[in-house]
Amino acid sequence: MFYNDHTPPHLHAAYAEHELIIGINPINVLQGSAPARVRSMVLEWAALHQQELADDWDRCRNAQAPQPIAPLE
């Protein structure tokens, strides 16, 4: 996430030369591409942490540091 980023609420996920922009509500790919396995893992992680991501989006929009979110295990 980036401070003061454009709406809709989203996150950026980078893998090698690939980047995905993932919407938070609903969880979906807004833009970009990545290998199917990577895309699946990012979407799974985002779904598991949807509320935390929404909270962090609000923090970033208010110039506050986001809280850490646990990685996918």
Determine the structural class based on helices, strands and strand pairing. Answer: alpha+beta
Question: Mean pLDDT score, rounded?
Answer: 95
How helix-rich are the residues, as a percent range? Answer: 25-40%
Strand content: 25-35%
**Number of continuous helical runs:** 2
Cα distance spanning the termini:
21 Å
Give the radius of gyration.
Answer: 12 Å
Provide an overview of this structure:
With 73 residues, the chain is an alpha+beta fold. The chain has one domain (10-61). It is 34% helix and 27% strand. It is built from two helices and three strands. The protein has a three-stranded antiparallel sheet with strand order 1-2-3. Strand 2 and strand 3 (27-33) form a beta hairpin. The longest helix is centred in the middle third of the chain and has 13 residues, at 36-48. The two termini are 21 Å apart.
Itemize the secondary structure elements and their pairings.
Blueprint: E1 10-15, E2 18-24, E3 27-33, H1 36-48, H2 50-61
Antiparallel strand pairs: 1-2, 2-3
Concise synopsis of the structure shown:
By secondary structure, the protein is α+β, with helices and mostly antiparallel strands.
Which terms summarize this structure?
73 residues; alpha+beta
